[in-house]
Amino acid sequence: MRMMLWLIVLLCPLASALPALAQSKINIEQSFADSLTALPKEELAVAGGFYVPAYSSVAMSQGKLRVDFSVTLSVHNASETQPLVVKRIAYFDTAGKLVESYLKAPVALKPLATVSIFIPTDDVRGGTGANFLVDWAATGEIAEPVAEALMVGGVANAHYAFISQGRPTRTAGKK
User: Fold this and answer.
1) Residue 12 class from Cβ within 10 Å (0-12 exposed, 13-18 middle, 19+ buried)?
2) SS3 state at 81
3) Strand 98-101 to 146-155 pairing
4) Of 66, 68, 132, 153, which is most buried by a Cβ count within 10 Å?
5) Taking the mean position of all CA atoms in its chain, how far away is CA 9?
6) 3-state class of 126 per DSSP?
7) End-to-end distance of the chain based on CA atoms, in angstroms?
8) CB of 148 within 8 A of CB of 163?
9) What CA–CA distance (Å, rounded) separates 152 from 154?
10) Measured over all CA atoms, what is the biggest interatomic distance in the chain, rounded to whole angstroms?
11) Nearest to residue 139, comparing CAs of 49, 30, 40?
12) How far apart are CA 166 and CA 32, in angstroms?
């Protein structure tokens, strides 16, 4: 028994030194249940989308150093009164290849609610030109939602954080 305890004490620091495993597939419906509401029964008459640049890796020091970043994509319903239907959240790599799709079916955000996707620092599948596409809809006129990516990372004692704002991919308006 004493030998087993000694072995655990010796191996614990090694376990913490191992790279963190990538986050298991997020389930937005469970993780953000408090932010969601029932899908509207009315026709979705207004639709739009965002392209959100994200950077899971950035070249530094004249391209000799690569710094990896965690990425948090947040999609905010900016309306105080209307639910926002999020139809797609898809993550693409530098070559434009789909890395992961985060919704099985559309979800509706409560007014002023938010959902987020987190990509850990050690998940560099997106590369230097990663991006998200977010498609949304609503039953009528609505404040345009906000989609942003927050990147956080560091090297040695230097830490970096920056935000990338989503850009509309199509005009919001009636179908």
Assistant:
1) exposed
2) coil
3) unpaired
4) 132
5) 37
6) coil
7) 70
8) yes
9) 7
10) 71
11) 40
12) 21
Answer for the pair 69, 101: CB distance below 8 angstroms, yes or no.
no
The per-residue pLDDT for 28 is 85
* Residue 80 one-letter amino acid: E
Higher pLDDT residue, 143 or 57?
143
pTM for the whole thing?
A: 0.80
Structure token pair of residue 142: 């609505």
pLDDT (tens digit, 9 = 90+) per residue, 60-76?
777 788 889 999 999 99
In eight-state DSSP terms, residue 61 is T
**Residue 84: Cβ within 10 Å count:** 28
Q: How far apart are CA 124 and CA 141, in angstroms?
A: 38
> What pLDDT is stored for residue 10 in this prediction?
43
Q: How many helices (H) and strands (E) does the chain have?
A: 2, 12
How confident is the model over 164-175, as pLDDT tens digits? 999 998 655 666
**Which structure tokens are listed for 138?**
């609503």
Token match 């992961």: residue?
100
Mean pLDDT in residue range 49-64: 88
For residue 153, is pLDDT > 60? yes
